[in-house]
Amino acid sequence: MRALIFEVFGGPEVLRYAEIAEPRLELGTVIVRMQAIGLNFADIYRRRGNYHLTGQPPYILGYEGAGIVERVATDVTALQPGDRVAFADVPYANAELVQVPVERAIPLPSDITAEQAASVLLQGMTAHYLVNDSYAVQHGDEMLVHAAAGGVGQLLVQLGVSKGARVLGLTSSPAKREVARSAGADEVLLYDSDWVQSAIHWSQGVAGVRVAYDSVGSTLMDSFAAVQTKGHVVFYGMAGGDPALIDPRMLMDTSKTITGGDLWNHVTSRADRMHRAEALFAAIRSGALRLEEPKTFALADGIEAHRLLESRKSTGKILLIP
User: Is 296 among the domain residues?
Assistant: First the structure.
């Protein structure tokens, strides 16, 4: 089979489309012929060597995608050849064929395409736990969403709106501000403005928003300044660098809270995956989630896809098509 591989860490140029051995069918697994593969920043970090990789090269990136079951192990009864499935946490997805553990295979309803599934599962499950578990958004809440034009950001905006929240987005450019507005944000501020004071003035009633979702990291103390007394900051990423150290006395004096977020602490069983996936599919059906048309690249053109994602000029999902 063909796969997108790399043997040394570095820039997009280290990627190579090559012929490698097919994955083995083992007990408890199925072999899926991929139709769409999600590209995520974690793939960039692993390619650069920032994230630990097990095993020996050649390495294969990718954890998210969708396709058709081609073979099933003898002990597998829940799936059969021809079934459509997707996943958000299976390694080596940048290939024509992927070995998928049954517990991580999410059956696809007939009205959800492979492209939709590969676009929404990883980022969508992240947004889902953030607004339901990290801080349960309530009707009437005011929420601040960092990087509101990004993949998770747009989904956070839409899920917040669907729960009846007022949503204030933050973006880095006027063009991205329009993307966040199109996603449903009530107002969008730019990072190069005095956005903390603007957020406080924008809020109604108590000074400051109820909750801030911060995926930037270096903005963490500003997020605290923008939330109201007894407000909440949900910290789930460091795209802009490491956050400053937090003085617990500040938390005590303001009765504010901080919650860390990582998807893999919230998706620990097949039941978790199914529950969140079904909620996302239902939101797509109802129109509560509107997915931006993904940008697609042939898997063989993975270098160009990585360059686009790394440039931070893209706003929607990037898919690799075998």
Answer: yes
Give the model's pLDDT for residue 314.
76
| Distance in angstroms (rounded) separating the CA atoms of residues 304 and 297 | 8
Is 125 domain-assigned? no
- Please name the residue that has the structure tokens 């929607």: 316
In the chain the first and final C-alpha atoms are separated, in Å, by 10
Number of domains in the chain: 2
| DSSP character at residue 242 | P
What pLDDT does 263 receive? 92
Q: Which residues of the chain have pLDDT under 50?
A: none
Single pTM value for the model? 0.92
Provide the Cα torsion 21, 27, 33, 38; round to 10°: -100
Q: Of 260, 284, 310, which residue constitutes the final position of a domain?
A: 260
Q: Which residues contact 15 (CB under 8 A, 6 or more apart)?
A: 4, 5, 6, 47, 302, 303, 306
Is 206 inside any structural domain?
yes
Neighbour tally for 322: CB within 10 Å: 21
pLDDT of residue 193: 96
Question: Residue 290 belongs to a domain with what CATH number?
Answer: 3.90.180.10
